[in-house]
Design goal:
The longest helix is centred in the C-terminal third of the chain and has 25 residues, at 1639-1663. The chain contains 51 helices and 61 strands. By secondary structure, it is of the alpha/beta class. The N terminus is likely disordered.
């Protein structure tokens, strides 16, 4: 053997040392050769020759020519005349050199890339060009389209369609044919400095050009494989199957065949369905076997090449990512009834071959192979083509999965393809084979090889061989990506495999060394692994030799045979033959798909093949036959069924007198007896748990985030109600379970779907639908309903979302699969703007792929209960999931909760060898039922000599049956446990049910426990006696009530046989004690499959409160979320009910398993194995004592909402079992169990300081407590001597029994510390994107795990997301699709049901607004018998209105803090001290009112009807508007005023422009005589500031579609933001000088502009040819918070009713007033919910102050202006001056306006601050003024505002005689200023002929002269009389004007002044302060 390779060892001594080193390496369980292999002093072998050349030749033909002939001379086309021919320049004379263009800004067309070209004449320079990326290869050298498309970056010329033309243009001057592969060399990119630099080489050849291309014949043959199969054998090289041609889809991603390929008799069958396997950042698929590749693009002569063409011709050796993670074989697909599988039985009858060996040899399979050897060998194709199998080929299985693993591990990720001068190489073929041998050597005799393990070994070896390069490369990548990309790192060792793997050889492993090293490696395991590698010339020879020795029995103890062929001059070939009986059976069964496996089981049962096995198991050997023993059993109905004395415990004897169900008393009679009532049993209704509420709010926040995003994919404001439909798997129990949760949650009542009193669950069934054939009609109905009800938001909840993810195109119409894709992914659902999809699942991995429809931002993960040791949710429950089960297996002192049954496994293995043709599920189920039947016979005591039966069953089964039968005996009410027996096959489950029922009947145990067959498609079938028992427990009175869910079976002693290929979301009660999974399949080891089976045992436990700083151990980081806490090392104790089983079958039981309770359930809150399940589900904190039972989802809810059997007290486990051992004096099975348990507990787990040796008895606690868990009940806390076994066990998690193979896998950890199942393929419908993926990290959060799967998994072709790809986009997320994930049984149903409720409440809240609801103030109740108008009068009469007295008093409640206006006859009420103005908005009373259809909206409202109104006009581009200046002269200001209009194109028809220059001339106004039912004549002006988002400017609905002119009046600095939010609104921009002005300035300019425009319009109409007449003189001044308008209907049946009306109706009614032009100002009433007077008694019209919504006649009021300086009370001042001028003011009292409370912005928001930024801004009113020329803190606030605020707050000091003195007001001339609520102001006008009140006999307490003009004279002032000591206040703009006013009015004659009485506002001189002087009346 030592001479079998070309090189020789240097010395004999070294050979000995080497042999010893290798042997030591093997003994140390090292899979990868230790470094000693890298130091073999072997002479290097010559590289293999190809086409007469060696691999060391410097250069192949750069152009990829297939011929070795010399290149043909080439003459380039001569350049045109006058063109530049300089090297490095284009023909246009522009420089193309990289050194010249590096800093230039280059414009690159979309889709083009900058590349560097090499010119032969400029070897040291690169030329810059732009090439379409589609014609360039990807990072693996694949997918480059034929042809060329380029642009010149010098002159910019584009459209070069041929590289020849492009080469001529850039002056390459070539002597050979121009080819892009030869001259396009490098990618170019800009570095951090923006300089264009050379980047990575363009990968024309793959792997940096160092891996040579395959011969041309190979490529050509591959392209025509299907067409010319016979030609292939002659042309294909020996390495052909190792090559790999990558197919491509339109997006350029490499594709591989998704479905399995079968090699049947050497014939290759493949599906044309191609599957992508890589993403933009992930690694690619394999491109070659060994060190060669066909990575280059197809040659140009391949005219038919396309991304699909090579896919269709893909050879079988291409390989695929396995859909199954269990064994090396892959899953199958069925095509036309024939199973085509990579590992399918070689049974097809085709005789042509596409992948035969080069020599054409075939291998004859011996006859009687299965009969002789008792097994079906499995051949794994490795490297090279497998020879054709002939003869008895049906008894041989062939798989390509190992070959796929080889290929996948040889395609390097993009980041490692090129690294400096020394590229990182993939593993060689020889190293792969050697590592495979090492892996097989490490496997145990009963272990089945796993593809994941082998892949990790390959990856680890590769990483360690290039560790330094990878680390350096990762550092570069990390700096570039900032950690957003999961780098590939060297993980820790694989669990169960060597703890460290040696570095791969530094010297390459040569083919001649491989057989010797492989045989040396296999020698360490004896005959377990045999290597056939010597003297073999072909694989056919090796396989023939293998078959011969196999038939001779020489491989009887051999599990694996590795055939290696290293013929000189040929590629290394290999295959692996599995000959171990256990391995062959497992791998063969793995080749079935789950459905095919079930069909095979059904066939074996129906055909009678299993009958021999059943009869064999019925025999008990010397103890007789089981059936005969049962037939001879004595069934005495007069006596209770006895328990054998050896099994009867002391405690059972104490309750021996308890009547059994066989007694003469009926259950009802027994229930009436107080002695037979269980005091530990209780039923509690439930409420939402805090953590469920938190999840519901997270869901709501995500929905709001979608609505708030700029994409406008969800307009929540437009919805007024919520409707929903819950989709569940087609399981009747799951359906009824969801209906029950929904019915009891109150969501239907909250959504208004049903009446408050819902009598039955039938109403709830309308909202839940099973995903069967009937779902199509339900979903279609919802789609139609959603289309017709656009104001309803429909939520489609897809519960148990991982159940059906099949593509509809791959499922037949009769199957229930594919319905989710057909319904939820349909275009109707996708495009409906009011349908939102919520996927809910415990296993979201299959929905997290590269092509997922769910955005990572729309994922909601179940939160953590703890953050930094702080309990966040204060619950009394904590989650016990798969992680806790795993933790219990690590205990060395107690019985773990999860374990396997060795006795059962031994018997099953023996029978599997005896019956090799039977499916293992049939064998294992038969053995298991035999064990149960035998245990029932033994425990019942009815079989004589039952102690001999113990040896025919296992200890575990005996303990399970003992617990089942004894539990009901310990409780007076016969409460018991549930035993879950999981049998996936429906046929086997039905057989098991019949068998157990027969044994139960023959033993007379019908009344002791129920046996339930859980068929997903059928409802529950429970015996009538047990139904009556449950009804008595639950106190249900309905006669026809039957349990429909497993939750309703709480405390019922029963065996539940749960069938179905997989669980479909059924929740189990908390009385579940054992979860028997011993017969579940071990063939399909995907993460989802494993975790959902283990999830059946998930539990919510009641916990005792812990200190906040010691919440208990954190969950395993497997369920990591935001916070990461290390799992503790303390071990779980499962309970003595499990430990009490005898150690062997011949040892008698000492006690009932239920008696022992010394094993408390685990105290740490670890989590389930699902990394998406956060550790927060472990809630170990106090919650309210009342149990909050919440609705739970079908797959996660253990808590039953209605008939929950909940104990009102805390269980023993909460106060006692958690931290102290529970002792029973009757038993002493584990005398020292308490001490080890406490030794394993960390200190922070012990919540009581008592030492464990002295447990303190706990008094039973009787206070009620509601469960916050999702289980159905919780026990009372009680003493250790509870009589009810159910009550003792209900707070303990169930025990789980697993198959040995699955147990070994689950309990082992991978290199990252996580359970190995987490590294498995997440789901059968997805595939790994690459073998070069990192392992899941233990510290990953749920979000990081989601990103991991999104990066490293791709959906298979039959996955519903496989077609979710869009050209040119990196994602194709559905914008209204959410994913809620959480561990099983944690309460997701309750969370999303509560989410539906709060979403409905939020929508109602969005449709409601806070309306000011305040009564009118200062209302003078006095009898007035005069009626001027009837209440229902339509319009006012001007003559009558003149007779109405003007009401000077202000009644608007917003002005309850201003000075009263003196009005004769008014008597103010004596109120307390009113609040200051700043506090008004904080205390004003509001009412929530739903918006009517005539409401005004802010910018957050965008319905379909508003699109045109808001600017979405298809005729105009958004934001298409023009800026127009408008200038007019105002005499009062004495200067020109220039305003700016921003007018959208769609609104220009409201304005007139002069044609030549487009100069704005003015607004067009209608004539007074115009009448239009759909038009509002008055322009609407809305002054606004600070409310660009919240201002109610959308009047579309309020106007009811009427045409109107609406102008927003904004300040200059806010112009841009208002234009952005309201692009279709006209903006009137105030001059910059008014940026700091108040509302008075805005109204002043609006009024003056309107009057000036009125004059211009009159002139225009007179000069033009249009119709003449009176121009409409009215404008509307509206506040920006007016939201709705109302009208009083006097024609209502029940009297006057106020209802909502459109603004159109209100304005058209007011504009239709016959004599409207006689009025100067009109307005409407402010709405109040409580009217002080009856509408029938109130005048329909009145004269008084008007606010907020005004109809102003600018013509009549031209001489009365708004005060442009005013900030407050400007409308009161204007109304008083308007009335004094003799103009009519009218308020329409039958109309009212509602004002919305807007806390943001507005003209009443004033900030008074100092001019110095470092001085605090809190300035009191006394600091608003100061003495002139004094040093004072100046304020950066307008002087007018300071003055108004000062007078408001200090006038009670300024006018002391006026304080609370209504009879002596302050006289205010020509203006009204607020002097505070304690001072009364009497307004008089100095204008001639003005209307004033009579002041005769009125004594004034003060005089206020504000900017007195010439109309104020001394004689005018002498008309008024003042009190002695009255105060005078004169206000002027400056000091000189102040003195002039005092002198002109001769004020010194009657008023005394002092120098200290002169003040100014606290403004700097440049801010023009105001001055005022005070004096006293003499």
């Amino acid at each position: 053997m030592g001479n079998s390779y070309a090189g020789q060892l240097r010395t004999t001594r070294f050979e000995e040392v080497l042999h010893n080193s290798i042997e030591a390496s093997l003994r140390s369980n090292i899979v990868v050769p230790r470094p000693v292999f890298s130091q073999l002093y072997l002479e290097a072998e010559q590289p293999l020759a190809h086409n007469g050349r060696t691999e060391n030749d410097e250069e192949e033909d750069e152009d990829g020519s297939e011929s070795n002939s010399p290149p043909i001379p080439y003459q380039m086309k001569p350049p045109p005349e006058g063109c530049c021919t300089t090297d490095g320049f284009c023909q246009a004379g522009r420089d193309l050199r990289l050194s010249s263009l590096a800093s230039d800004t280059l414009e690159v067309s979309p889709g083009f890339m900058l590349i560097g070209l090499k010119s032969p004449s400029l070897p040291d320079s690169l030329l810059v060009g732009a090439v379409d990326h589609r014609f360039l290869p990807d990072e693996r050298g694949h997918n480059a389209l034929l042809g060329f498309s380029g642009s010149c970056m010098g002159c910019g010329e584009k459209g070069f369609r041929y590289f020849t033309d492009f080469a001529n243009h850039i002056n390459l001057k070539l002597s050979t044919q121009p080819k892009k592969q030869k001259h396009l060399k490098f990618h170019l990119y800009r570095n951090n400095q923006g300089v264009l630099v050379k980047g990575a080489p363009i990968c024309w050849r793959g792997h940096d050009g160092r891996i040579r291309q395959m011969s041309s014949s190979l490529s050509e043959t591959r392209a025509t494989t299907d067409e010319q199969p016979s030609r292939l054998a002659l042309m294909q090289s020996s390495r052909a199957p190792g090559s790999y041609t990558v197919a491509s889809h339109a997006n350029g991603l490499p594709q591989i065949s998704d479905t399995s390929h079968s090699l049947t008799n050497g014939i290759h069958a493949t599906s044309s369905v191609m599957q992508p396997v890589t993403n933009h950042s992930g690694p690619g698929r394999p491109s070659a076997t060994g060190s060669q590749t066909n990575a280059g693009p197809p040659k140009k002569r391949h005219k038919g090449w396309s991304p699909e063409s090579s896919a269709n011709g893909l050879p079988e050796s291409t390989g695929k990512t396995p859909p199954s993670s269990s064994g090396l074989p892959s899953s199958t697909v069925t095509t036309n009834g024939t199973r085509l599988d990579a590992s399918a039985t070689v049974s097809c009858s085709q005789r042509s071959s596409t992948t035969v060996s080069s020599s054409g040899m075939s291998v004859a399979v011996p006859d009687q192979l299965l009969h002789t050897c008792g097994l079906q060998p499995v051949i794994f194709k490795g490297h090279g083509p497998l020879p054709q199998l002939t003869g008895n080929f049906t008894e041989v299985l062939v798989s390509s999965l190992l070959q796929s693993c080889y290929l996948s591990s040889q395609t390097l990720p993009r980041v490692y393809q090129h690294y400096g001068p020394s590229p990182i190489q993939p593993l060689s073929t020889e190293m792969q084979i050697l590592l495979t041998v090492y892996y097989l050597v490490q496997l145990g005799p009963d272990q089945v090889p796993l593809i994941e393990d082998l892949e990790q070994i390959f990856m680890r070896s590769w990483r360690e061989s290039h560790l330094s390069e990878i680390r350096q490369n990762q550092q570069t990548q990390t700096q570039a990506s900032q950690g957003r990309h999961y780098g590939i790192e060297a993980p820790p060792s694989l669990p169960g495999l060597p703890q460290h793997l040696g570095l791969a050889p530094q010297q390459p492993l040569t083919p001649s060394q491989l057989p010797w090293l492989a045989q040396l490696a296999a020698s360490s395991c004896g005959e377990g692994v045999v290597v056939l590698g010597e003297q073999l010339g072909s694989l056919a020879q090796g396989l023939q030799q293998m078959f011969s020795k196999l038939m001779e029995g020489r491989f009887e103890n051999t599990n694996y045979i590795v055939v290696i062929v290293t013929a000189s001059g040929h590629e290394t070939q290999s295959c692996v033959v599995v000959t171990g009986k256990h391995q062959c059976r497992s791998l063969a069964e793995n080749m079935f798909s789950p459905n095919e496996g079930l069909r095979e089981i059904n066939h074996q049962l129906s055909s009678g093949e299993a009958q021999e096995l059943i009869q064999f198991c019925s025999s008990l050997g010397q103890d007789g036959d089981m059936d005969s023993l049962l037939d001879s059993a004595t069934l005495d109905s007069s006596e209770p069924s006895p328990l054998s004395s050896s099994q009867e415990s002391t405690e059972e004897k104490s309750v021996k007198n308890t009547p059994s169900p066989k007694d003469s008393h009926s259950p009802k009679e027994r229930a009436l007896t107080p002695k037979e009532t269980c005091s530990e049993y209780s039923v509690e209704w439930r409420d939402i748990r805090p953590i469920q509420l938190a999840v519901a709010r997270k869901l709501l926040s995500h929905v709001c985030a979608i609505a708030d995003s700029s994409t406008q994919n969800l307009d929540l404001v437009s919805f007024d109600r919520v409707s929903f439909l819950i989709l569940v798997p087609p399981s009747e129990v799951t359906f009824q379970q969801t209906v029950l949760h929904l019915w009891s949650s109150g969501v239907l009542q909250e959504l208004g779907s049903v009446e408050q009193e819902c009598v039955s669950q039938r109403e709830a069934e309308r909202y839940v639908v099973k995903m069967d054939q009937g779902a199509q009609v339900r979903v279609d109905s919802l789609i139609q309903e959603a289309h017709s009800n656009s104001y309803t938001l429909y939520i489609l909840v897809h519960d148990h979302a991982h159940w059906d993810i099949s593509s509809a195109s791959y499922c037949n119409t009769e199957s229930d699969l594919g319905l989710v894709d057909q319904l939820l992914n349909s275009r109707q659902v996708r495009d409906a703007p009011n349908i939102l999809i919520l996927h809910v699942t415990s296993f979201p991995f299959a929905l997290q792929t590269q092509y997922t429809r769910i955005s990572p931002y729309n994922e909601i993960h179940w939160p953590s209960s703890f953050s930094n040791d702080v309990d966040l949710y204060h619950e009394r429950t904590r989650y016990f999931g798969v992680s806790e089960l795993l933790e219990s297996t690590r205990s060395g002192s107690t019985l773990p909760l999860m374990r396997c049954d060795s006795s059962f496994e031994s018997m099953a293995s023996a029978l599997e060898e005896r019956f090799p043709k039977l499916h293992s599920a049939v064998i294992r189920t038969t053995v298991l039922i035999h064990h149960y039947c035998t245990a029932l016979m033994a425990v019942s005591g009815r079989i004589g000599g039952s102690h001999n039966l113990h040896k025919h069953t296992s200890v575990e089964t005996l303990a399970i049956v003992q617990a089942l039968l004894s539990a009901a005996q310990q409780c007076p009410a016969h409460h018991g446990h549930m035993i879950l027996l999981r049998i996936p096959s429906l046929a086997l489950a039905a057989w098991a049910h019949r068998r157990l029922s027969r044994v139960r009947r023959q033993l007379g145990l019908e009344e002791r426990f129920e046996i339930i067959l859980g068929n997903p498609s059928q409802p529950l079938n429970i015996g009538h006696s047990f139904i009556d028992q449950i009804k008595l427990w639950l106190k249900i009175q309905e006669a026809d009530w039957v349990p429909r869910t497993y939750l309703e079976l709480e405390a019922l002693p029963c065996i539940l046989i749960l069938s179905g290929a997989e669980p479909q979301g059924e929740s189990l009660p908390r009385s579940l004690k054992y979860c028997d999974l011993r017969v579940i399949s071990c063939s399909y080891l995907q993460r989802t499959t494993i975790e959902q089976e283990l999830g059946l045992a998930a539990y919510l436990l009641k916990t005792e409160s812990r200190s906040p700083h010691n919440p208990g151990p954190a969950s395993d980081v497997l369920e990591s979320d935001a916070e990461k806490l290390s799992s503790t090392d303390n071990e779980e104790e499962e309970g003595q009910e499990n430990e009490s089983s005898p150690a062997s079958s011949n040892q008698p039981l000492q006690s009932s398993p239920d008696v022992g309770t010394s094993d408390p359930f685990p105290t740490q809150s670890s989590s389930s194995t699902s990394p998406n399940a956060p550790k927060s589900t472990m809630d170990t904190t106090p919650s309210p004592s009342k149990a909050q039972l919440a609705p739970q989802t079908s797959s996660q809810s253990f808590l039953y909402p209605q008939t929950s059997l909940l104990h009102p007290s805390q269980s023993l486990a909460q106060t006692y079992s958690l931290v102290q051992p529970i002792f029973h004096p009757q038993i002493s099975l584990v005398p020292t169990s308490a001490q080890p348990y406490f030794q394993t507990l960390p200190l922070h787990h012990i919540t009581h300081p008592q030492p464990p040796q002295q447990p303190v008895p706990v008094r039973p606690r009787r206070h009620p407590s509601k469960s916050t868990s999702s289980s159905s009940s919780s026990p009372r806390a009680s003493s250790p001597h509870l009589t009810c076994s159910w009550a003792r066990g209900v707070s303990r998690p169930p025990s789980v029994l697993l198959p040995r193979a699955l147990y070994d896998i689950i309990t082992a950890n991978d290199g990252s510390g996580l359970p190995r199942c987490t590294s498995f393929l997440p789901h059968m419908s997805v595939a790994w994107a690459s073998s070069f993926r990192p392992l899941l990290s233990k510290m990953m959060t749920c979000t990081e795990q989601s990103l991991y799967y999104r990066q490293w998994t791709v959906p298979r072709a039959y996955h519903m997301d496989s077609n979710n790809r869009t050209e040119g986009r990196s994602d194709n997320f559905h914008p209204r699709r959410l994913l809620l994930s959480g561990p099983p049984q944690v309460g997701k149903t309750g969370a999303y049901l509560h989410f539906l409720g709060i979403l409905s409440r939020m929508l109602i809240r969005l449709m409601e607004v806070d309306i000011y609801n305040e009564d009118e103030i200062n209302f003078n109740i006095q009898a007035d018998e005069v009626k001027y108008k009837p209440p229902n009068a339509l319009w006012p009469d001007p003559d009558v209105m003149k007779t109405l007295p003007f009401d000077y008093t202000v009644h608007d409640p917003k002005y309850d803090d201003i000075s009263l206006v003196y009005c004769p006859g008014y008597k103010p009420a004596s109120d307390g001290n009113p609040a200051h103005q700043e506090d008004v908005c904080l205390r004003r009373r509001t009412t929530r009112i739903k918006l009517s259809k005539y409401a005004a909206f802010n910018t957050y409202h965008h319905c379909e009807q508003c699109h045109l109104y808001l600017g979405f006009n298809p005729r105009y581009q958004m934001y298409e508007s023009t800026l127009h200046a408008f200038t007019f002269t105002h005499l009062l200001l004495g200067e020109e005023i220039q305003l700016y209009f921003i007018i959208p194109k769609s609104k220009e028809h409201y304005f007139s422009f002069n044609q030549p220059g487009g100069q704005l001339e003015g607004m067009r106004l209608p004539l007074a005589a115009d009448r239009s039912p759909d038009c509002i004549k008055s322009p609407i002006f809305t002054p606004t500031t600070g409310r660009h988002e919240h201002g109610l400017f959308n009047l579309y609905h309020a106007m009811d579609g009427a045409s109107h002119l609406h102008i927003l009046v904004v300040k200059e600095y806010e112009m841009a933001v208002y234009k952005k939010y309201w692009p279709n609104h006209i903006l009137l921009v105030l001059p910059p000088v008014f940026n700091g002005a108040g509302i008075g300035a805005a109204h002043f300019l609006i009024k003056e502009l309107s009057y000036h425009n009125l004059e211009l319009e009159r002139s225009r109409r007179q000069e033009g040819s249009g119709p003449t007449g009176d121009v409409w003189p009215f404008i509307i001044l509206a506040d920006d918070s007016c939201v709705m308008w109302n009208v009083i209907d006097f024609d209502a049946r029940n009297g006057p009713v106020e209802h909502s009306a459109s603004l159109k109706h209100v304005l058209q009614h007011m504009e239709g007033c016959p004599d409207l032009t006689h009025y100067g100002l009109c307005g409407i009433r402010k709405w109040s919910g409580r009217v002080l007077t009856d509408p029938n008694e109130r005048e329909p019209f009145s004269r008084g102050h008007l606010h907020d919504f005004l109809l102003l006649n600018v013509d009549r009021s031209q001489n009365v202006q708004y005060d442009q300086n005013r900030f407050t009370c400007h409308d009161v001042d204007f109304t008083l001056r308007l009335h004094s001028a003799g103009l009519l003011v009218c308020r329409f009292n039958n109309f009212s306006v509602m004002k919305k409370q807007i806390a943001i912005g507005g003209y009443r928001t004033f900030i008074i601050k100092t001019k110095m930024t470092d001085v605090p801004t809190s300035v009191g009113p006394s600091q608003y003024v100061c003495a002139p020329d004094s040093k004072h803190l100046f304020l950066a606030t307008p002087a007018q505002l300071l003055l108004e605020k000062y007078l408001q707050h200090t006038s009670h000091k300024l006018f002391p005689l006026s304080t609370k003195n209504y009879e002596h007001p302050v006289l205010s001339v020509d203006c009204y200023i607020n002097l505070g609520p304690e001072v009364t102001v009497c307004f008089v006008s100095s204008r001639p002929h003005s209307v004033n009140i009579c002041t005769t006999g009125l004594l004034f307490s003060g005089l206020l002269l504000c900017f007195a003009d010439a109309f104020v004279t001394p004689s005018f002032l002498k008309k008024f009389t003042f009190l002695k000591g009255a105060t005078l206040c004169v206000i002027s703009a400056d000091r000189s004007a102040l003195r002039q006013t005092v002198g002109r009015l001769e004020l010194e004659e009657e008023w005394r002044f002092r120098l200290s009485d002169e003040f100014q506002t606290a403004n700097a001189k440049e801010d023009r302060p105001l001055f005022f002087l005070t004096g006293k009346h003499i």
